[in-house]
Description:
The structure is a single chain. The chain is an alpha+beta fold and about 170 residues long. Helix 1 packs across helix 4 (about 115-140). The chain has helices spanning about 5-20, 70-80, 80-90, 115-140, 145-150, and strands spanning about 25-30, 35-40, 45-50, 55-65, 95, 105-110, 165. A 7-stranded antiparallel β-sheet has the order 5-6-4-3-2-1-7, covered by helices on one side. The protein has a single domain, classed as Yope Regulator, Chain: A (2-Layer Sandwich).
Amino acid sequence: MPLRVREFMPLVLERATERLPAELRRFDARIRFVWLQIHYWTPKVHYEVWLTRKTGRIEIGLHFEGEREFSYRWAEVIAARMPEVQARLGPEVELEEWTQSWTRIHQTIPYDPLSEPLAEEVARRLAETITVLQPMVEAERANVPAELEALAPAKRSGGRRFHRRGRRPNSPL
């Protein structure tokens, strides 16, 4: 039985969270109809699942959506590690300029009718992407120059734009 987008995206989030190692289960997430975003530090560096019927693809990736210098700095970090990234996530993973100031590393899969098996596949790929890339992001965060750090606003507190997702450290999931 096909799923609706409003059923599919929360299922992807739930299943991806279950697949993540315990230390990566605390994040902020938001779902806006055809996309899901997860971030750990700033919304300007977020993982995304984006359903694009128009192209017939589902994108799964890590986006850098800050000022040009900020986004390109992160793209350079990932570019240096692309052989490792592709060895772990597959040769179809690409790093690219998306807009004049944003960059992303992503892969796409066919947009089939939304179903539980497709949600499982997307969740698996999202969890793998996070598991491979987030340690790289965390390792590099301390090396981001202060002037670039200032270009990425700190995580908002008290707002409704993102909601806290994840478990307490001692929780079974």
